[in-house]
Structures are given as structure tokens and as C-alpha cells.
Amino acid sequence: MFGDSPFAGVGAPALAVADARSRTVAVGGYLGYVQWGGSGTADSRWTGHRIGVYEQDGLRCRHLVRSEYPVRSFAFHPVLPLLAVGTGQYDGGCFFEGELLLIRLDSGDVVSALRHPREVLEVEWRSETELRLVLAPCDDWENPQAYEQGHVVVVTRPDWGAVGRKSIGAEEVAAPVEPVVRSNRGAETRRFLADLAASAGRQWSVRRRVWAVEGTEDGRVVAALDGVLAEAWLPSGELHWRVEDEEGGRQLVPAPDGTSVWVNAERRGGRRGVNGEPASRLARIAVDTGQVLETLSPDVFTVVVAVGRKMVLRPLDDWYGRRTSPERLLMFDLDGPESGRGNGPVDGPEVGRFDVFNHAFPVRRASRPYLLVGTDPGESHKDKWVTVLEADGTLRRLFPHSWVPEEHHFGGPAVETGQSLVYAGTVHHPHGLQPGGAYVVRRSLDGSVRWQHRTDHPATALDSDGETVYVAYNSGALTALDAGDGSVRWHTELTVDGAPATALSLAVAPQGHLLIGTVDGRILECSPQP
After folding, report:
1. Distance separating alpha carbons of residues 473 and 63, to the nearest angstrom
2. Which CATH architecture has domain 402-530?
3. Distance in angstroms (rounded) separating the CA atoms of residues 308 and 448
4. Band of pLDDT at residue 320, cut at 50, 70 and 90
């Protein structure tokens, strides 16, 4: 494992509370979204909020719990092995929603105790039987002071360890409104965790979202993640080099020379470099040294489609949703001298507008550039085709992205294997992703479906060694499918030291093992067998 640190599973921490009696510490944090400007297909059914319970002696993670909402308050029960957690947030339109979670410290079982969603700002045990709650107003309808108000109640139960799901009704949390001060304890929490890690002889820092990972022939591991354009690890587990970046790399594509990688960075707003020049969006980095060999800064946000004799880029909407014009592929000639690339890219064929849900289609091990392109440039999300960019710069349609005429499919990760494409996607539904609405499919280049595998959660990444297709899901699952017929060879829930984790990136290394980049910033070397 590379990039490990204490409290990694919770992401960026917002709150931490220690309990002297149980010698544990509760930490609430946020891992972030699993989408960026070039791909948003894995965000359905995802929640990045986490609650971790750690042993103070050794900092081992005892329990890691997913939360629908951000953590607002913790309180350890004075006698029982029980942690009360207040969570919640404003929904962006009207309501303050959240939960009161009761976590058993002995088993890790979780109960959501409120019958109706309410943001719980504070929790405090008054005694073994009394729990004081401060709840935000239900909504801010005609109430601009709602952010500064709360309802204070005391709920009584003879045995809080026996409280059932949704057993605290609205009548028990009804109370007059009174002034409430909301506090931000993020900075205080970071100092506390850093001191706690230091007392255990360890260093702590926040790492999040390994967006891309690749292995080299000599066993090194190269990754792109939040706050890091790219980094490399030696087989010994030592960090070889790191190129830091304010926002971080999102795509990592090996260069044709075999000694360097191209990195595509997230660039939001109008970020500038240290001298006021536009910050580079694409950089080629030497794998041996970490030296930035050259940079490219096209005038628009882009996603890398392919890197060969030419670098093929597809323009994106900028961070504010403004559309690029013209909506054509951009191509840099990589065969010529580097000095010539400063003249800018050459326009390629028109491909229509790119959006993060419909057109994300990163194809690993591709023999040529593949894209999802709609038949109508004005409504490019409709009637998408899997399309190939030919050597002469023209587009050729291969087959419709959705093989079910009445279904609209969103994009996802893909891999080329054996004159076919294996790709993941989801089926559009007006009420959101439905059970069985996510899939992995293998299709011949004539469009025929060789097999399909249906699931409930979207894939974050996939790769293949030719015999097995390895698929990571945003639920934390990892599945190996037979490349020939799509049958399940094995299925597991990804864990790190016994705590659940979620893969965001995945690659089959040249040596045959799996490299997995997690949402919490760690990189795992795993056997291709469970």
C-alpha cells in the first residue's frame, strides 16, 4: 500500500472528539465527489461523507460508516458502548435535512433514529437516559434567520442501546425556536489529529481521490490525485518523486516514448501560474526523475482522448458551464519538434458538445481514438454512437452506444480487448438510477453484444488483462468478470486493514497484479485473485 496515513478513510476531517473511557476517537470527514470536469458518470448513489471510530492507542480504524450527510456533532454515551452522531445540511433549495445516527462501538451497527429527516446540529448526553438535541429549522421558507436558529429538545429513553430505526417521532422533537451559533471546527480538528498522529509516532496529512494510476515495466507506480499532478512510488514502497499542484491531475496517459507520462490537470475558474501566465493544463513528466519535460495549455478545458503520434483532445464546457466554440477535436502533433507545439493545436472534426454524464468514454489499451458522438451536433447527448477517429482525421461511426433502442445510456470507463470494447454505463431514468440500471457490456466492433453484466451501482474504473475484466464500483465492490462470457469469476468488497474503501481508479500492471487508487487517497497493490 502506498500513500497511507492515519485517519485516511474519512478524507478531509471536519470534526473529531476523543472519549477517555473507551480510548477511542470519532472523526467525521468528507472524501469528495467522484466526478470531475471530464467525467461525472460514477456519482449516482454516491455519498462521500464518512464517520470513523479509531483506537487512540495505535490509531487502528475500528469502524468506518458512510453517512448521507456531513457530520455536525459527536457525543459518546457515558456508560454504553454507543456514539451519537448529529448530521445534516441545507439541501440547496428549501430544507435542512439530516439524521441522528446511533453507532454501536462494539459491533459497528448503525441506527438512524429520527422518523423524518432533520439536520441535527448538536448532540449531548445529559445522563444515561437523556439526550439533548439541537435541530435546525425544517426549512427556510419565509425565514431568512433560519441559519441562526435551532430547536432544543431532550429525548428520553430507558435504554438507548435498544432504540430502533426511525423510532423518534416529530412530536418528540417539537420545540420553540431559539438563537443558535453554528461553529466550524475544521482547523481545530486538523491540529488535533496531527497531534494525535505525532503522539503515535506517525505523520498525518489529507490525501484524497486517486484519479488515475499506472504501473511501469520496472515495478514503479505512477498516480495522479488531488493536490498532486503526478507522483511515483518505488517497488520498495518509498516515494520516488512528486509534482505538486494546486488542484491535481485527473488523467494519466503513458507517452509513446515509454519513459514519460502525460497528465491532464483539473483547472477551475481562471487559475494562473506563479508569474501570472495561464496555468498549464497538460504536462509531460519523466517517469525516472519527475521532471516536467514540456507543457501544453490549450485555450479551453479539455479531456484527453488519445496520445500517439498526435495528442487528441476534446473540448469541455468550462467550470461555469460556458460552452466552447467551435466544438471540434483539438490535435497537437507530437512527432514534430517541441517548439512547434507552442503554435497551438490543429482543429479536428466537429464532435458536438461534451457533458460529463453523456460523453465520458475513456478507453484503456485503445488501438485508436474512440469517442461518444451524437448524430445531431445541436443535441449531442441524444442518439450517441461509439465513434472512431481515423488516421486521416475523419470520424467513423461504429455502433449506437445504447443497444436497447428505447433506452438512453450514459457514458463510463472502457477497455479495448480482442477486437471488441468492454465498457460500463448507466441507464437514464427520470427518477434516478434504478436497481439493475448500471451495466458492463462487451461488444464487437460491429456492435453485436457478446455479453452484459447488470448491477445497481455505476463503475468508477475498469481494465482487462485479456482473460478477465476487473471492474470497480462506487459502492466499494470489486468484481472480476470472465472476458469471454461475462460470468462472475469473483466478487469482493474492497477493504483496507478491515475498513471499507472505494476504488476510483484501476489498472492491470505489466506484472499482472492490480493497482487500485482509492477515493481516500491510497494506492493498493492487489493480487488478481480475491
Report:
1. 21
2. 7 Propeller (2.130)
3. 28
4. very low
